Amino acid sequence: LPKLKVASASTETGFNPGVGKTVAWLLVYMALALAPMLIALGGERPAPRSLLVEIGAMLGLLGLGVLAMQLVLSGRHRWFGLGFGQDNLLQFHRQTGQFAWLLVLAHPLTLIVGDRDFLAYLDPRDELLRALALIFVMLAVTTLLVSSLWRLALGLSYEVWRTLHATLSLLVVATGLGHALLVDHYSAGLGTKVALTLLIAVPLLLLLESRLLRPWRLKQRPWRVIERESRPDDVIRLVLKAEGHSGMNFRPGQYAWLTLGASPFSLQQHPFSMSSVASRPDCIEFFIKQSGDFTRSLSTVEIGTDAWLEGPYGVFTMVPSAGRRTVFIAGGIGITPVFSMLRSCAELSCSQPMWLIYANNAKGDINLGKEIAALSERLSLTVIHVLNEPPDDWQGETGYVDADLLARTLPEDSEDIDYFVCGPQPMMDSVEPALRQRGASVRRIHSERFDLV
Amino acid sequence: MAHDIARHLGTLVSIVLLIVAVGVAWWIAG
Q: What are the distances in angstroms from CA A273 to CA A4, A22, A197, A238, A339?
């Protein structure tokens, strides 16, 4: 399942970044993406060429910067993500990835249109290695794009896609750097060459850190499966115990990447929300909907299996003790981070009024129904179930979560109400504007999207 | 509106970067 939205450590009960911080982050991103171009222009300036040729050259340098930043965006680096959730960063990564593809193709095309002599760069008879490298980069970025946008349609497993994506990305950026250095136009000076190399080396090293060093560090903090329960609602309950360490401190609503088996270097790494209370960092519980190959295989996981947790991640999180009125809106398995928040509220005996709007397709899709009912008795919690395909005897709400339903079931919006929304994309796209219509400011709406991977 | 913008920040930033790159090329080519 996983997560989130634009955010930072700000509001009392949750995390939401704000316009100022978002703009600052975007400016930093743009400066870094433009850095190869700035470095190239900072060196000795060759005689100007035609406009189209210069555009082609700048698109190439920009392409190198954008591609290098792709490695940073997807690396789960907390210091870089700041308050933005991984779901937002990955959405950004997808869009800039398409832009990078466009740049890689537009770069040679514009140069060739501007000056036919540039065709020689693609001619293997002229220089075999250079031509092969350039053709490889164009094919590789196209493969990256197609395999990412249509992974499921192509039948690619997540593990194969992830390996392909990391390998091709690394090769594309390294080849792009080599190309920029060898072209010797804007990068003719030694200083420019060194600066460009150092600049691009950073994201390449960060990629190696996230794929090699990070699993090695996980190896020092093993976990073990101590409970596994197959539930009638098609959900697996998995409990992990920290082995020889203090566990993982997390805030209610956060998630971790789970790997099962002897080695944390396994390609099978999937993100799941913690459902247990934050006060037990050494014993973590997950409720995992069986929806794919990996999650289905969990029903046969043996007690005692080694496990590895990378995390916690996510800014979709609340501070239960803040005492603010809270509305939770969950769709499907999006209930799991909300469940952790509710449990933590119950543990702290929070007394503020809370509402949970829980949307599902059919009655049988409701996850954790009994547990939520039990929590509603311990908390001042009103639970509103919404079904899209209700049975004949259904007395509750029906249809989708829209502005009308919110008006019917919730109190008037006011400054002391926070909203936590977690569900599939269509639900988020409809609920977020509906909350804004009610008058809720962006800072009070905390949301998280699924389909991280 | 705010959420719509937030959802397309990557695309918006890409357009800005493209304009900057073309602008710089224009400036260089004189």
A: 12, 25, 39, 12, 10
